[in-house]
Amino acid sequence: MRQQGPMASSPLRLKREHAIGKLSAFIRKQYGEQYQVRVFGSTCYGASSRDSSDLDLTIFDSERPYGIEPWDERQLPAIYSVNDLAKKLKHRGYLNVSAVAKATVPIGGSSNDDVPMQPQCINANCPHRACLPAAVKCTDPKTGVTFDVNINNRLGVYNTALLRQYCLLDPSLPYFLKVVKLWMYSRGLNSASGRHGPPSFSSYAITIMTIALYQHFELLPNLQADKQAILQTHFWEKRGGVQRKIDVRFGACKDWRPPQTARPLILRDWFDIRDGGFVDRPSEIPSIWGPPFPGTGNVVVLDPLTFKNCTHMISSETLAKFRRECMDMLNRMKRNKAWSTQLQDYVSLVADPEYSDYALTALRRTYFPR
User: Model pTM?
Assistant: First the structure.
């Protein structure tokens, strides 16, 4: 695995590299040399808060660099059947193998997203061109590394490249994200799947929210507004029965500098600006935002590439809990300044490679217990 951003601990990094290399060789042997395994997600920019986190992988199809285009009537190759991939992985000895059979709806289907796929649709020859299963979950038997593998969903890789660029502009961002995600997890607010209670915030949504906070304090620019693009491409996505072209474009803002009046972000800022909630949604959506503007849901956190609401599943009860937990944390920091100062000292140590693991352990056990 090519390491991007702050380095993971060497033993963990080597273990992951070995597991990914073995899986990549297996994929090419089974399906062909045109397939490449690519890593995406928070591990690529140093913001993974737990060493046990699953690794997100996508298998690039070199014959479909822009996804499945509307005019592409070729039969999909066998690798697009995650049932087939899951069977091969299980036969090879991978553990806990499961095909996550969800997809956007077929052409002419209903308007609901993420419709569970019927068994007859889970194959590469399905006449519904949009019926692509989401992923295969599996665990490498030797290293214990767990993967979430999808097929040619390049938007995740492009999003990761965008977020990594923000981390390069402000090296404090990945460490700040680690701490925030650790706190959210400790409060039962970092589980989009709902495996640990009601559906709450995904790590990706937390990342987008935190970058917005940095931008609010003028500590980061808007990379998508940079006219000198370092990545410019597109990808065809199917959602809600509609196939659409997603334009991907962002720059590095090489000449950007934060204003002299800007100060470094501290943990209290995150809870303070969230105290009481979010920016109220306008009663009338400006025409430049739509149509359709994805403003449904109790919380709206937009994906910077697709403008999909990353928090559409969050209930009013979960939102109320989030506000309450932020307010409780903020009040505790205001009441006990010594405790708050010590907490911030541990947060600062997360950025120090020599003390990072120690600081995260202390935060997990002492300050953010579950």
Answer: 0.84
